[in-house]
């Protein structure tokens, strides 16, 4: 009976440790994705240097708005 209770408590502790690790990993991945998106947005001018400056500014603005809406979870 005591062995059963010991195993039960060990399983409960393992569950909460695994849940905590999962939550930490999700937040780390979200931060990593946001960093990657920031790198892409800052490198956009390098990809379109052949365009005139006003057109480039509009493209950067449009892509920035799209990224913000995607991060916020809004579609359309």
What report would you give on this structure?
The chain is mainly α and 76 residues long. The chain has one domain (2-72). Helix content is 87%, strand content 0%. It has helices at 2-47, 53-72. The protein starts with a helix and ends with a helix. 0% of the residues are buried. The model has no long low-confidence stretch (mean pLDDT 87).
Helix content: over 70%
**Number of H/I helices:** 2
- Element pattern in H and E: HH
Instruction: Say how many strands there are.
Output: 0
Largest sheet: none
Provide the descriptors you would attach to this structure in a database record:
single chain; 76 residues; mainly alpha; 2 helices; rod-shaped
What does the secondary structure layout of this molecule look like, with pairings?
Layout: H1 2-47, H2 53-72
